[in-house]
């Protein structure tokens, strides 16, 4: 029997809904992920030709996602939702929050993007990615409603977002698994993101920088306003990560002093760093934690950890047991962020797509044999590829621009010309796998593989690493 929510949707969508929900009508059943993933993007691709402006306020239609989730009765209560946004560190912070809360005894759903190798990586419960079987089961159940909603779109610029469709699969999985709380990473921006249709008791904001110009506006202020759009009337707790001076002032004016701010309410102190990770102490609103260790490289990860711990204190309503917190952080895995995947030579993967992120690569140099450094770079056209190339040229003996073995993104035609502007001996190789073979002949002591997440995914496949269960 259909529940009240489904009865409402039957009225809205007609008899088609009942037939589709029970028997899935004539809709083709997806049997493989290879069939399913293009379908998730079909509404967006249909709208693309009509989107003359890259402006989320004009092209995004999160109300369609809300309609989908409402019809499927999948909208959780706000006290089960933590929304996480930012320009840098939101994925790492989301993962850390999920890991800490799991160690505190909660069953945690985690929704992030993009994936590195398998699409399923975007949806996890207690660190384990959703199976192909369950993903396809949910998507096949939802497809008739998705089709009906997309067919009803009147504005040709609008689309039922891939993030919204994927969110419906995630929430169905979380509901089936009876999660206690769900950590949801915002896809892009905040205000108009499909995930922001959810009520959220918690809002977490990592570092914000100028990014997605056009989509989110034309100034830092526009971007900040978009990001803090996840702070709504239903939001009781706001935790703000480390920000630049200008960004911090903008955020204070928008969210007020009731939020917890990095530097004022919680502050980490880095005590040591090695190739195995970082050690630090942390003062929060509820207490002090000594001798914390993180098996991740980069001082920015300590900043992300501080943000995550403070967020978890607001969830638990108290200081966290020190031994549980130490365990959660010391066991943490989060691929593609200054990640060491091989030794002799040392191979480090990092998803830097702007000059600010690339600058953190320098922190690795004192920790390893850096006599001969090779950097392989693949940053998409719509990201700060020149900034990444410029920064990496400063410490690289050999610079290679390339593309991932598998990616739908567009990469710059002038990458080699830009690279040679900063490093006269830079070379270009067609694909990452070919680039890796080339640089090995150079006998480097350190190899950086830097760029978009599909680049990191290609590297993970080369170095044979499964990401379906990260604990």
TrEMBL record:
Belongs to the folylpolyglutamate synthase family. This is Mur ligase central domain-containing protein. The keyword Secreted does not apply. It comes from Sutcliffiella horikoshii. Residues 84-311 form the Mur ligase central domain. Pfam families: Mur_ligase_M. Gene3D superfamilies: Mur ligase, C-terminal domain (3.90.190.20), Mur-like, catalytic domain (3.40.1190.10). The lineage of its organism: Bacteria, Bacillati, Bacillota, Bacilli, Bacillales. The keyword Magnesium applies. InterPro entries: Folylpolyglutamate_synth, Mur-like_cat_sf, Mur_ligase_C_dom_sf, Mur_ligase_cen. Keywords: ATP-binding, Ligase, Magnesium, Metal-binding, Nucleotide-binding.
């Amino acid at each position: 029997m259909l529940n009240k929510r489904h009865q409402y949707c039957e009225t809205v969508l007609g008899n088609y809904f009942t037939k589709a929900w029970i028997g899935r009508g004539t809709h083709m059943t997806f049997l493989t992920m290879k069939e399913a993933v293009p379908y998730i993007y079909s509404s967006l691709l249909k709208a693309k030709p009509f989107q003359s402006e890259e402006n989320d306020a004009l092209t995004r239609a999160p109300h369609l996602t809300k309609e989908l989730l409402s019809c499927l009765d999948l909208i959780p209560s706000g006290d089960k939702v933590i929304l996480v946004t930012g320009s840098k560190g939101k994925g790492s912070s989301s993962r850390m929050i999920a890991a800490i809360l799991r160690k505190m005894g909660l069953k945690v759903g985690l929704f992030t993007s993009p994936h590195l190798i398998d699409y399923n990586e975007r949806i996890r419960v207690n660190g384990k990615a959703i199976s192909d079987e369950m993903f396809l089961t949910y998507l096949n159940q939802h497809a008739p409603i998705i089709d009906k909603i997309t067919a009803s779109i009147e504005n040709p610029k609008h689309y039922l977002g891939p993030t919204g469709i994927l969110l419906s699969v995630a929430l169905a999985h979380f509901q089936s698994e009876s999660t206690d709380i769900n950590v949801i990473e915002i896809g892009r921006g905040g205000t108009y993101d499909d995930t922001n249709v959810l009520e959220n008791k918690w809002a977490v904001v990592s570092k914000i920088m100028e990014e997605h110009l056009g989509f989110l506006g034309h100034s830092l202020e526009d971007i900040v306003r978009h990001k803090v759009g996840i702070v709504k009337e239903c939001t009781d707790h706001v935790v703000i990560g480390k920000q630049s001076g200008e960004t911090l002032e903008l955020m204070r004016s928008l969210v007020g002093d009731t939020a917890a701010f990095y530097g004022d309410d919680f502050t980490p102190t880095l005590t040591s760093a090695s190739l195995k990770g970082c050690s630090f102490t942390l003062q929060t609103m509820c207490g002090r934690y000594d001798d914390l260790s993180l098996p991740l490289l980069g001082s920015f990860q300590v900043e992300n950890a501080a943000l995550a711990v403070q967020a978890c204190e607001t969830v638990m309503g108290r200081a966290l047991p020190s031994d549980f917190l130490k365990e959660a952080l010391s066991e943490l895995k989060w691929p593609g962020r200054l990640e060491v995947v091989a030794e002799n030579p040392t191979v480090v993967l990092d998803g830097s797509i702007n000059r600010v992120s690339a600058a953190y690569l320098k922190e690795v140099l004192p920790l390893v044999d850096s006599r001969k450094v090779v950097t392989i770079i693949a940053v998409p056209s719509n990201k700060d590829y020149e900034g990444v190339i410029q920064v990496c040229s400063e410490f690289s003996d050999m610079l290679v621009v390339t593309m991932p073995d598998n990616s739908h993104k567009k990469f710059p035609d002038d990458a080699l010309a830009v690279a040679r502007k900063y490093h006269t001996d830079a070379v270009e190789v067609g694909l990452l796998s070919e680039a890796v073979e080339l640089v090995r002949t150079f006998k480097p002591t350190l190899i950086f593989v830097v760029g978009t997440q599909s680049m990191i995914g290609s590297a993970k496949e080369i170095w044979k690493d499964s990401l379906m269960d990260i604990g």
